[in-house]
Amino acid sequence: GAVVSQHPSRVICKSGTSVKIECRSLDFQATTMFWYRQFPKQSLMLMATSNEGSKATYEQGVEKDKFLINHASLTLSTLTVTSAHPEDSSFYICSADDRDGSGYEQYFGPGTRLTVT
Amino acid sequence: SQQGEEDPQALSIQEGENATMNCSYKTSINNLQWYRQNSGRGLVHLILIRSNEREKHSGRLRVTLDTSKKSSSLLITASRAADTASYFCGEAGTSGSRLTFGEGTQLTVNP
To answer: So what's the pLDDT on residue A2?
Structure first.
C-alpha cells in the first residue's frame, strides 16, 4: 500500500524558535496533502490543505503566518511552526491523497510529536 | 467545519466479544472512512464506504452507512487484545477529499 513518512518523529525546541516538519509520499505522487494537529486524547483537527505548486488553504482559526506550509513537489510537503510557543506542543500528522480530490482514501504519516519548552 | 460525533467515547470489552462503535455526521458526504490509531501513532485506514453503499466487510470488520440518519457504525467481531486502539470516523464531503473526523472511540479489549 501507499506509504507516507514524516520527519522528524519527535522534536523538542525552545520557545521562540522555528521547527520544520517534512511529509513525504514514498511510492506515489500526492497532488494534495493535509496537515492535522491532535492534542492528547482528542480527535484530529484539520489545519490546512496543501496543493502542489499553489498556496495552502488554511482552516478557520489557523494562523497562516505561524504555520507555514510549502508543497514544492508531488512527494513533499513541509510544515514550519514559526516562533513556537508551549501551546504549540502537539502531535502533528500529515496525510496524502493520491487522487485529485475524487474522494479516495487518505494515507497518513506516523506523526510528529512537537514539544516546545 | 463541525465535527461528527462518535459513541461511545470509551468501550471496554473482553476478548472474543464484539465491539460496535457509532458515528454521526452533519453534512452530505461523498464517503465515510474508518481509521484506527494506536497511542502516539498515525492513523491506519480500515474501510471506506461510499455514500451509495450501505454495508461493507473486511475480515472481522463490518461497516454500515445510513445516509438518511447520517450515521455509520463499525463492528469488530471476535475482538482481540491487539484491537485495543482509538477508532475514528472521517467524513469526506461532496466538494473534495478533505476529511472531518469524529471525536473517536477508545476501545480496550481485555485478554
So the answer is: 80
